Amino acid sequence: MSSPDYPLGLRLAGRRVVVVGGGAIATRRVPALLDAGADVVLVSPALSPALQGLLPRFTYHERVFTPSDLDGAWLVHCAVDDPTAGAAVSAAAEERRIFCVRADDRHAATAWTPAVTRHGQVTVAVLGGGSPRLSMGVRDRIAGLLSEISADRLAGTVALVGGGPGDPELITVKGRRLLNAADVVVADRLAPGVLLDELRPEVEVLDVAKLPYGAAAAQSFINETLVDRARAGKFVVRLKGGDPFVFGRGGEEAIACSEAGVPVLVVPGVTSAISVPALAGIPVTHRGVTHEFTVLSGHVAPSSPESLVDWPALARARGTIVVLMGLRHLAEIADVLIRGGRNPETPAAAVQEGSTSQQVVVRGTLASIASAAADLRTPVVTVIGEVVTVLG
User: Fold this and answer.
1) 20 three-state secondary structure
2) Is the dihedral of CA 218, 219, 222, 223 positive or negative?
3) Nearest CA to 238 among 282, 275, 208, 280?
4) What gap in Å lies between CA 331 and CA 207, rounded to an integer?
5) What local confidence, expressed as pLDDT, does residue 72 receive?
6) Of 6, 209, 236, 260, which sits most exposed with the smallest number of CB within 10 A?
7) 219 in Cβ contact with 251 (< 8 Å)
């Protein structure tokens, strides 16, 4: 029977850690070491592209390992799948009394990398007796418990959470975790509604929908609600469609909370400006086609004195144009772009309720897209540019 492991948290900031190997395993290990502040020295004849992208955050020796590489090191990761090379690294580490993690043979290692979950200042590392599946399974269970405990620390806080374009699986991991910990959820109609059905029964859910050109909760009411519930000691999640800071008034809500002395967390979301076209087979950029894209709100007509868009400049631009909330004014938007010089035959597409089961895509040209989209209902994302046809 083997002896039990002795768990220990290593404080590696400023300390030399050697990584032998520059492939897939090293690609997984190096970022965490850098995040811990370690002075990473990597030895390998070649580097993965991902590791090349991290240079010069670590020292790189483009050659095979030599025992002297471990001089002055506190820890070594042998990130190769060659047992002969691994044994050489282990021998050099043993001679220098340096703990050695081995990817090729965990039973020959003197240290193991645990399965880790982090929640704020809390880090939990799980060792499963050399079984990665066991340690990861236990880690995931603990992560779920920590998510529940974290709600107590968030009392009196507001989290502005981007829910993505509509598909509940497109919310971020952090957004989902905070939503599950909420005491109060303030949601708009574009937030993924299915997620609300998964909340605990005692969670207060407030509907602050803003229907296009119809009934809408006043922004001042939303701001006051967030502040009042937080001041009452609740953890409040403002669940928004898309991203909070892309035409989502998240900035106004953050200001209101800040002025009231309420702490605010911002969790970015997958913005519909990019994701909805992508799910319709339209990349907003494509090599050799466009080097730019512009996202604008179309809820104000181009002819309105309230419009902040420089329409003549936009018409002269060659890049992709993505219009959010512009269905009602789409004919006028197309007209002003054409009059400003944009080719009326420029490909265009309109996507209704992208990422959901109600997604509908209509295609046409800049001149015809308004009529093609006449039967669609909001929310609609419109894309104008050559990228519309680049994938077929």
Assistant:
1) strand
2) negative
3) 208
4) 32
5) 97
6) 6
7) no
- Per residue in 113-153, pLDDT (tens digit) is 888 777 767 788 887 776 777 877 887 788 777 766 566 67
Look at phi and psi of residue 379 and say left if phi exceeds 0, alpha if psi is from -120 to 50, else beta: beta
CB 226 within 8 Å of CB 257: yes
Quote the number of domains for the chain.
4
- Percent of the chain, pLDDT > 90? 71
The catalytic position among 81, 82, 210, 335 is 210
pLDDT value for 364:
98
Residue 106 to residue 81: CA distance in whole angstroms? 11
pLDDT of residue 147: 65
3-state secondary structure of 145: helix
Domain membership of residue 62 as a residue range: 16-113
134 and 44 co-located in one domain: no
Listed residue (388, 381, 391) closest to 365, CA to CA: 388
Structure tokens at 331: 């004919």
Could you tell me if residue 3 is inside a domain? no
Report how far residue 190's alpha carbon sits from residue 178's, in angstroms, rounded to the nearest whole number.
18
Q: Is position 188 annotated as part of the catalytic site?
A: yes
The Cβ-side half-sphere exposure at 24, using a 13 Å CA radius, reads 3
Q: How many CB atoms are located within 10 Å of the residue 140 CB?
A: 12
Domain boundary among 270, 300, 328: 270
Query: Per DSSP, which regions of the chain are E strands?
Result: 16-20, 39-43, 59-61, 75-78, 99-102, 115-119, 122-126, 158-162, 184-187, 204-207, 236-240, 264-267, 293-297, 320-324, 347-352, 360-365, 380-384
Of 267, 204, 269, residue with least CA distance to 230: 204
Tokens matching residue 355: 């990422």
Indicate if 323 and 363 belong to the same structural domain.
Answer: yes
Please report, as a single letter, which amino acid is at residue 384: I
Q: Are residues 197 and 218 in the same domain?
A: yes
234 catalytic residue (yes or no): no
AA identity, residue 259: E
The predicted model gives 202-206 an average pLDDT of 90
Q: Of 188, 234, 240, 243, which is the active-site residue?
A: 188
328, two tokens: 């009602």
Three-class DSSP category at 184: strand
- The residues near 260 (Cβ < 8 Å, ≥ 6 apart) are 227, 231
Name which of 358, 345, 301, 346 is nearest 321 in CA terms.
346
Is residue 371 assigned to a domain? yes
